[in-house]
Amino acid sequence: MKKKRFKMIIVLTILVALFFLVDDRAYIIARSAGYKTLRVFAYYKSTEFSSDKSIINKPHFTIINRGSDEEIADFIGELLEKSYSLIGEEFDYYPNYNIPVFVYGSMEEFWEYNKALKGQAVMGLYNLGVIHIVAPHAFSMTLEEYESSGTVLHEYTHLVIDDLTGGNVEIWFTEGMALFQEYNIYGAEWGKFMDDVDYSLEDLRANFMGLDSDKAYRKAFLIVKDIYSNIGKDGVLDLLKELRVGKNFNKVAKLVEE
Question: What is the pTM of this model?
Fold first, then answer.
């Protein structure tokens, strides 16, 4: 859960089609050609499907507004630009391409376009180079509460980690990295008052999405926090470079355990 009183989760979906890619022959061809091709396909499909929607252009993002107030969509665009700078400084990485972002005014709007997640109270979603964000009023949050929750920063961090690893990343690790950046930048600590979590690294690697989400996210955060403590920021950046060139994640896991 992002915040206990809202009973919601942030979802990362890797190598799963966006709602408008399902049963699309072009998607099947793109998938067979590999992850990079799939991301390019998703990018252009998002552009195609947003041609008749309300668009807000930011320096590094194209905001496709689906049912949110224009002022709120613009506010989320500004948070994305802020995240671009903050996370860019943290990872020394600034994407030189425009990033598509869908902003939804309600959970119903989100579910309409993301049918696989219907019924789940999802604040944000990252998938194949595309960011999806649900507006703060859907959760009765003020703009200040929304920013400090780290939702927008969290989803943008997923994109950066995806880019820096070339998609060679396990779900627990990218979730832990995104949660750590919330903590590092906004001081928002996932599950701060949670009792000890008895999940192991092997548990997270084997079945992250099947575990209790609160405990799994907490454990992922704690492991990444320990990684930063043990090898520092520069060590983490080196780790991401190793993943990008195809290092087996089993070897990375051994480094984590040390």
Answer: 0.83
Q: How many CA atoms lie within 13 A of 208 on its CB side?
A: 20
Alpha-carbon distance of 149 to 184, in angstroms, equals 12
For 136-147, the pLDDT digits (tens) are 999 999 999 999
Residue 114 is predicted with a pLDDT of 85
247: amino acid identity, one letter: K
User: Which of 141, 113, 143, 139 is CA-nearest to residue 18?
Assistant: 113
What are the backbone angles phi and psi of residue 230, rounded to the nearest 5°?
A: -85, -40
Q: Tokens 């009183």 — which residue?
A: 5
Nearest CA-CA partner of 104 in 41, 143, 54: 54
Q: Judge contact between 205 and 250, C-beta under 8 A.
A: no
Three-state SS letters, the chain: CCCHHHCCEEEECCCCCCHHHCCCHHHHHHHHHCHHHHHHHHHHHHHHHCCCCEEEECCCEEEEEECCCHHHHHHHHHHHHHHHHHHHHHHCCCCCCCEEEEEECCHHHHHHHCHHHCCCCEEEEEECCEEEEECHHHHCCCHHHHHHHCHHHHHHHHHHHHHHHCCCCCHHHHHHHHHHHHHHHHCCCCCCCCCCCCCCHHHHHHHHHHCCHHHHHHHHHHHHHHHHHHHHHHHHHHHHHHHHCCCCHHHHHHHHHC
